[in-house]
TrEMBL record:
Keywords: DNA-binding, Transcription, Transcription regulation. This is LysR family transcriptional regulator. GO terms for molecular function: DNA binding; DNA-binding transcription factor activity. PROSITE patterns: HTH_LYSR. Residues 4-61 form the HTH lysR-type domain. The keyword Transcription regulation applies. InterPro entries: LTTR, LysR_HTH_N, LysR_subst-bd, WH-like_DNA-bd_sf, WH_DNA-bd_sf. Belongs to the LysR transcriptional regulatory family.
Length: 289
C-alpha cells in the first residue's frame, strides 16, 4: 500500500493551481527548492511524473491531470479528519461546594465556553462532604470543595479563614446561651463553630436551623443571632464579634480542587476555572456545605 505525504500532495496541488513552483512556495510559506523536493518525493512514491517542466513553462503531465482530482479529495478528507477531532465535544462532571458557587459561577462557565465552545461541563452543587464522597465513587470527575477533616490530598486554591459575625445591634445577654444561626446538621461550618464552642465550654442554642442561607443571613442582619462566616464572605454590614463576646478562635480551612481528569482539553478547562477562582475568590457566604 502506498502511503501519501500530506505536505507533498499539498505542494503538488499548489503547483497545479498556481501554475508554478515560485508561486506555490510563496503560498505555502516555503522555499522553491523545498517545494521541488516534496514533488519529487511524491512522484517517486507514486511511480509517475506528475509535472512536466521546461525553461519556459510548468504544466501537469497526463498522470498529473488524472491524479489532481484525487489529490484534492485526499486533502479535503485530511482537513475533515483534523476538524472532526477539533470539534469533538469534551464533557466532564464538576462538583462545586455550595459555599463556593455563587453569582460569579455563570460568568466563569461562560468564560470557559468562550475559550472552548466544544466543552460541556455538568455542574453539581452540593455540600463538600457529599461531593467528596461522589468524587471517590467516580460519579464526578472533579470537585472544588472546602477541605474536610484530615484529608490532605487535592490542589489548594485558596485559604478559608472563619470568624464570628453579627449585626452591630446584636446583644448577647449575660448568662444566656449564645444564639447561633446555622444551617442543617450536615453543614461543615456549623460543625467547626459548634465544636469550638463546646471545647471552650460555652453554652449555645441554634435558631433558624435549616432555614437556608438566606434565612441565616437575614437572622444575622436583623440582630437576632450570630453565626460563623468566612472572614472574606460575611454579610454586608455584619461585624466580627468574637473578641467582644469572648468566643473561641475558629480553625482555618482551605478550598481545594480534586480531579481525575487526564485529557488535555479538560485539564486546561479546569486550570482556567481554578485560576479564575484564585483570582476572584468567589464571594458567597461560606456557612453552606
Amino acid at each position: 500500500m502506498i502511503a501519501l505525504d500530506v505536505e507533498a500532495v499539498r505542494a503538488f496541488v499548489a503547483i497545479a493551481d498556481l501554475g508554478g513552483f515560485t508561486r506555490a512556495a510563496e503560498a505555502l510559506g516555503a522555499t522553491q527548492s523545498a517545494i521541488s523536493v516534496k514533488l519529487k518525493r511524491l512522484e517517486a512514491r507514486l511511480g509517475h511524473r506528475l509535472v512536466e517542466r521546461t525553461p519556459r513553462s510548468v504544466r501537469l503531465s497526463a498522470q498529473g491531470e488524472v491524479f489532481l482530482g484525487a489529490a484534492r479529495e485526499f486533502l479535503a478528507a485530511h482537513e475533515r479528519a483534523i476538524a472532526s477531532l477539533a470539534a469533538t465535544r469534551c464533557r466532564f462532571a464538576l462538583g462545586i461546594a455550595a459555599h463556593v458557587a455563587g453569582p460569579e459561577i455563570p460568568a466563569l462557565l461562560a468564560r470557559l465556553n468562550a475559550h472552548d465552545p466544544s466543552l460541556t461541563i455538568e455542574v453539581r452543587l452540593e455540600n463538600s462532604r457529599d461531593l467528596i464522597d461522589a468524587f471517590d465513587r467516580g460519579e464526578i470527575d472533579a470537585a472544588i470543595i472546602r477541605r474536610e477533616d484530615d484529608r490532605r490530598d487535592g490542589e489548594v486554591l485558596a485559604p478559608e479563614h472563619f470568624g464570628w459575625f453579627a449585626s452591630p445591634t446584636f446583644e448577647q445577654r449575660p448568662g444566656e446561651p449564645i444564639r447561633l444561626a446555622a444551617l442543617a446538621p450536615s453543614c461543615g461550618v456549623r460543625d467547626i463553630a459548634t465544636r469550638a464552642l463546646d471545647a471552650a465550654g460555652l453554652p449555645w442554642i441554634e435558631v433558624f436551623l435549616g432555614g437556608g442561607s438566606s434565612v441565616v443571613t437575614a437572622a444575622v442582619s436583623a440582630g437576632l443571632a450570630l453565626s460563623a462566616f468566612s472572614r472574606r464572605l460575611a454579610p454586608a454590614g455584619a461585624v466580627e464579634v468574637g473578641e467582644r463576646f469572648g468566643l473561641p478562635d475558629l480553625p482555618s480551612s482551605e478550598i481545594v480542587l480534586h480531579s481525575t481528569l487526564t485529557d488535555a482539553k479538560s485539564k486546561e478547562a479546569l486550570r482556567i476555572l481554578a485560576s479564575a477562582f484564585r483570582d476572584h475568590r468567589i464571594a458567597v457566604p461560606s456557612f453552606v456545605g
